[in-house]
Amino acid sequence: MKVLVTGATGYVGGRLVPRLLDEGHEVRTTTHDPSKEGPWFSDRVETVEMDIQDRDQVDAAVEGVDAVYYLIHGMGGGDDFAQKDREAAQHVAQALTQHGTSRVIYLSGIVPPVDESELSEHISSRLEVEEILSSTPATAITLRAAVLMGSGSTSFEIIRQVSERMPLQTVPDWMNSDVQPIAVVDAVEALVGALTADVGTRSYDIGGPERLPYADLLDRYATIAGLERPQVEVPLLPTDLVGFLAGSLTDVPTPTVEALVESLHHDMVCGEEDFRRDLLPEGYELVGLDESFRRSLADPRETSASDPATADPMGPMPQDPSWAAGGDDQPLLAKAADTVRGAVDRVLPD
Questions:
Q1: Distance separating alpha carbons of residues 258 and 198, to the nearest angstrom
Q2: How would you write 221-249 as a 3-class SS string?
Q3: Mean pLDDT in each 10-residue stretch from start to end of the chain (350 residues)?
Q4: Composition bias, kind Basic and acidic residues: at what positions (predicted)?
Q5: How far is the CA of 10 from the CAs of 71, 109, 162, 268, 284, in angstroms?
């Protein structure tokens, strides 16, 4: 099949494209800046210029493909992110309809079973994008994931960097919701399977074999990483302050951290697990949580990272963001001092 992958240089897209190529699919990717050096697999794909906010460029990118992977998420801050996500999805939906594209596959987040008024702004926006794509004549398959495990994943890097930089884990009393992490290799396998699955328009919750409270997830990481990190439950910590502190202590962009922290007010677990039956090969075994941690933490010099084609996708890859693989080398005390100053300014503004 001829497939368009939007967000091909992102964390998931950069791991999905090689799998699609290995399966024999013809892949088209997009770039916002043609002068920028492409990813390591760029010589094996067709690349076209596309700004997701430009309807004509989106239309041209979708023309002639059998399916589209929609891997674009507006995780930045600002009051207009939802509007931008809406317009981007509408541009793709119009192109799908115009060209009779048969399938669109969207990677989204778990939607907890609560009233929509209780959903975070980012989850609400994800749900709106899903609804827009599902309104087209194309078969629209949405994969909803909570915590993606793997070096370079925003969720994993938050866990890693907070655990490694804080000798004491201060856990808000409201952060006791369950999560169901999934290894990125399993998520990619489900994305590949969604391309040819004999199903109609629908969503799938995707998750790994374990569900556990987020505080326990932090504790499991510390154990596997060989860290001693006592936990202290702290009451009455505002969500926005927790998101700011976590974002300041890590190198993951703060707006992204704040959005992920906000979602932890609800259980982020699978409501159903049909993806195992419909999207994964028969007999496929999901990666366990401890193995996910070990593979994500493996020394890249021992996992063929010098050759991305043979490297473990759970580990670092060349197109990962600069804050991946543990982040920068700024001393902890300096980063903590900056965080404290920022928190004071936030609580006691001028």
A1: 37
A2: HHHHHCCCCCEEEECCCCHHHHHHHHHHH
A3: 95 96 97 90 96 96 98 69 93 98 97 88 92 98 96 90 82 82 98 98 98 93 92 73 72 74 83 98 97 90 70 91 63 45 41
A4: 295-304
A5: 8, 16, 22, 23, 25
Please give the span between the terminal C-alpha atoms of the chain, in angstroms, as a whole number.
58
Domain that holds residue 11: 2-341
Q: Tell me, yes or no, whether 116 lies in a domain.
A: yes
Residue 350 lies in a domain: no
Q: What is the CATH number of the domain that holds 210?
A: 3.40.50.720
Q: Which residue has the tokens 């010098």?
A: 306
CA proximity to 257, closest of 76, 74, 72, 118: 76
246 Cβ partners below 8 Å, 6+ apart? 158, 162, 257, 261
Side-chain-facing half-sphere of 340: CA atoms under 13 Å: 6
Residue 107: what are its φ and ψ, rounded to 5°? -95, 115
113 contact partners, CB below 8 Å, separation of at least 6:
271
- Is 17 domain-assigned? yes
Q: Is 22 exposed, middle or buried (0-12, 13-18, 19+ CB in 10 A)?
A: exposed
Query: What CA–CA distance (Å, rounded) separates 237 from 244?
Result: 11
- 8 Å CB contact between 233 and 173: yes
Question: Among 58, 37, 201, 225, which Cα is nearest to 131's?
Answer: 201
Query: In this structure, is residue 61 part of a structural domain?
Result: yes
**Which candidate, 218, 190, 201, 188, places its Cα nearest to that of 313?**
188
The residues near 20 (Cβ < 8 Å, ≥ 6 apart) are: 3, 5, 27, 192, 195
